[in-house]
């Protein structure tokens, strides 16, 4: 998908070349890395929520939006309702 968008190099391509695996195997590896990162992040959220709920919520919202931006590409060309909702969640005032 990234190569179709005109990108020259990306993690999946580099992983394929370095490890001699198919694109499917490389994508599975990336999905595993993302899943493991989310698990660590969610554990950290759960452990720290009572101490600083506002900061934890901001971190969670920003992380979700960045993940969505990376996962679905260019937000300037694709203005879906999901993208708008994600941006709105960043810009709305945080209740104190």
UniProtKB/TrEMBL annotation:
InterPro entries assigned to the protein according to its UniProt record, in alphabetical order: Isoprenoid_synthase_dom_sf
Gene3D superfamilies documented for this protein: Farnesyl Diphosphate Synthase
Pfam families: Terpene_syn_C_2
The protein's name in its UniProt record: Terpene synthase metal-binding domain-containing protein
Biological source species: Corchorus olitorius
